[in-house]
Amino acid sequence: GVPVVEEPEGLEDALSFLVAQGFGYRHWTDAYLAAFALAGGYRLVTFDQDFLRFPGLNLLLLKS
4, 8, 9, 37: which could join 44 in a potential S-S bond, CB 3.0 to 4.6 Å? Predict the structure, then answer.
């Protein structure tokens, strides 16, 4: 199964950093998920190529 985890320490700092890079309100949800993964040391698994824009993200991009 997939575990449910609390927001990791450092999430706000990671999100602030990504938002400062110019990821505006239209990409806020993506920025939040990327920041969550970055702050928690998690891998983000997605079909969405838009996540390639986030530097340092441990990303597993699936093919559809």
Answer: 37
